[in-house]
Amino acid sequence: MTTSRTSRVFNGLLFLFLIIFATSAKSESVDTRILNEILSYMNETIPACDDYYGYACGKWAKVHENDSYIEITGKIDHAVNQNLVLLINELAQRSVNQLSAVESKVLKFYQSCRQTKTSSLNSKNYLRLVPPNNQIPWPQFKAKSHPWGRQKFQWMETLARLRRYGLSNVFFKLDVNQDILNSSKYIIDIDVPSFQEKNERLQSSTITKLMLLLLGVERRKALNLAGKVKSLELSVRTLAERLSEGDSVDVTLRRLDQRTRGKWRNYVNIVCNQTVPSNYKVQVDNMDYLVGLIEFLQHEDPEVIATYIMLRFASHVIEEAMDIDDEISCIQDVRRNMELAVSLLYEQRFISADKMRQHKDDLLLLFEQLRKQFLLELDGNRLRLTRNQLRHLQTKARRMWIKFGNMPQDVNRTKFVEEFYADLNFSDGDNYAQCHLKLLEFRTSRWFGQLHKPALNASSYFLMTDSDTAMSSTPYYLLRQNLIIVPYGIMQEPIFHSEAHDVFKMSLLGFMLAHELMHGFVTGGIHFDFQGNGYELGADIMEKRLYKVAEDCMNSNETAYLDEREADITGIRLAYDAYFADDSPFNRTQPEFTSRPLIQLFFLNLAQFFCGDGTSSEFVDHDADELRLRQVMINFPAFAHAHNCRQDVDQMHPAKKCRMW
């Protein structure tokens, strides 16, 4: 009896020990795995105080020379895409009756992509499906024995038809935006076109000619026509630049038609697919430009105008499609066109209820500590703001939201997504181009549908994303909602693991969240209050002498992306201070899995966000990662202290350092 009792006690203690050991080993394994990945990228022959990017990221390109991604967020997206391929293959094994409506639509579009030959992914297929109107084809597709029918061509009608498929910024921009002074209200905004980015204009004359040749235009005519459409675009661009300054006015469609001699009400009717009253008001940012544009186009050759519009539409649909039909590319295509559906299916397949709660708790802990630290920085008032200015910024910080997943939080998400896609219908015989056009039209209809509804609150909100955002797992801040959205895919290694040491959590994901939080309080975001409404107080803060000093300092190495640099430089301080604060709830003990000081580990892991092998042309709306990491570190005294850098001797430790908050 005694032996039996002793045996049970021993076995119980042994079982408890094994559980504790297994838990400890698992945790250690996570930390070791993350650390080993960091170490594999380092080139310790390069001094950290002279070139921290080379030191922390010097071997990244070699390690990933055979991979398709160029940085850590791309690695995360690749893992998400691989999971989605697995999910899609599982759906394909089911019978039709076993699939939900959403699953069927996702699978149909994916399969249309996989079954499409690369050679058929050309603009001809789209242009035949979407002519200028119901009476005439594009000039290049007319029967040779018949005239084109230029008298039936109306360029505003054609642009309205194409706007339904997402084409904007041709001759003018017409978008649905939140009212600058009332974020709960959506309005139609009409503005001059932009020509800054490559996708906002035709490419070179040679490429324009090549596009025409591919569309079947004979060589001699293609050369002549390419010159004419390029000349047309240059004239419109010159007009836009000459009349770029204008006052924003609210005007009824009736008055806009009268003032410009255009057909704006008909345009809006076509885009919205309903009759809009003539007294419906839109916002016009430059009336003189619209008057001049319509006057100018009245004297231009309709065939040249139609050809220009056709080429811009052809470029648009090709840019919105993936250019190859392998599994990963087709998954990316599904993500960019059906984000809500993909998010739901990803959640259902890969995020259990327990994991969802854990991820939300982890995110909230990081975010709340960052918010708390920023409020402390505001209390310090180093910019010498007025009491009223401080109060507004504090309110904005306290009312900022964070959300895991670009999905409504207070509804049955399965039912919500099913209802959202209820009007999207694919036919059995639809090919890729037909499915793609239906999705582009569906997205536009949902976007314009916001005109008839009040803006959602942060809990109910979901972003109808652009294509690039939909394919990315990187967190982002929405300044009109005062909301940070954290896509589902980001909560995985090497970005995050719930059992990792806290230094890994705060230095990487914590920094990413701090960067997004600070977007609300630097150039751009500071112009809006906690409700996302524009207010003069933000402009007043930016006119403060100390704010200007900080801004000028951060732009001393001039950048076109000052808001991003400000968010980087303020974000690292926020993440660092939140982690190393005396009352920090995070584990700050020296870890047993490495002898590297905790502070150096913090900076090394943070650097992983910037490691990569992309060229400067591959970064959109940001400086290159190497420059970003350098600017972050040279402006943060704690980094120099961590590596004993010599002031004004080592390149990473200049005496002059920039700080805003």
From TrEMBL:
<dbReference type="GO" id="GO:0004222">
    <property type="term" value="F:metalloendopeptidase activity"/>
</dbReference>
<keyword id="KW-0482">Metalloprotease</keyword>
<dbReference type="InterPro" id="IPR024079">
    <property type="entry name" value="MetalloPept_cat_dom_sf"/>
</dbReference>
<feature type="domain" description="Peptidase M13 N-terminal">
    <location>
        <begin position="49"/>
        <end position="380"/>
    </location>
</feature>
<keyword id="KW-0732">Signal</keyword>
<dbReference type="InterPro" id="IPR018497">
    <property type="entry name" value="Peptidase_M13_C"/>
</dbReference>
<dbReference type="InterPro" id="IPR000718">
    <property type="entry name" value="Peptidase_M13"/>
</dbReference>
<comment type="similarity">
    <text>Belongs to the peptidase M13 family.</text>
</comment>
<dbReference type="InterPro" id="IPR042089">
    <property type="entry name" value="Peptidase_M13_dom_2"/>
</dbReference>
<dbReference type="InterPro" id="IPR008753">
    <property type="entry name" value="Peptidase_M13_N"/>
</dbReference>
<protein>
    <submittedName>
        <fullName>Membrane metallo-endopeptidase-like 1</fullName>
    </submittedName>
</protein>
<keyword id="KW-0479">Metal-binding</keyword>
<dbReference type="Pfam" id="PF05649">
    <property type="entry name" value="Peptidase_M13_N"/>
</dbReference>
<dbReference type="GO" id="GO:0005886">
    <property type="term" value="C:plasma membrane"/>
</dbReference>
<dbReference type="Pfam" id="PF01431">
    <property type="entry name" value="Peptidase_M13"/>
</dbReference>
<dbReference type="GO" id="GO:0016485">
    <property type="term" value="P:protein processing"/>
</dbReference>
<keyword id="KW-0862">Zinc</keyword>
<feature type="domain" description="Peptidase M13 C-terminal">
    <location>
        <begin position="476"/>
        <end position="659"/>
    </location>
</feature>
<keyword id="KW-0645">Protease</keyword>
<dbReference type="GO" id="GO:0046872">
    <property type="term" value="F:metal ion binding"/>
</dbReference>
<feature type="signal peptide">
    <location>
        <begin position="1"/>
        <end position="27"/>
    </location>
</feature>
<keyword id="KW-0378">Hydrolase</keyword>
